[in-house]
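Methods, example record. To illustrate the input and output format used throughout this study, we show the complete record for Helix-turn-helix domain-containing protein. The sequence lines were provided to the predictor; the line carrying structure tokens was produced by it.
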Amino acid sequence: MPKGKSIYEPEYPDFLQLLVETRKAGGLTQVQLAAKSGLSQQYISAVERGGIRLDTLQLRRWLHACGSDLKVFSAELERRLAVREGKAEGAKSGRTKKG
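The corresponding predicted structure is encoded as:
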């Protein structure tokens, strides 16, 4: 059972960093993303600062405007969180696990 809002979870900065990186990789400023996604620039700024959360449909719209999608974003987020948690193969030592 969740303890509280996800914005207070230690992993949330990883999510926000990936959002910003995805926007920048798409070659978009916040203003350009707002125009392409239909979300306001103020909303985008607040999300990127961690002040408010996106729902799944807003995230999808954000990602599509950046030339990405939920599948790609989720896979990268899972990879980063696994590294953070030390669960990725070789995440801490740089070596792969031996069977």
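Annotations derived from this record:
Residues 70-85 form the longest helix (16 residues).
Residues 8 and 50 are 9 Å apart (CA to CA).
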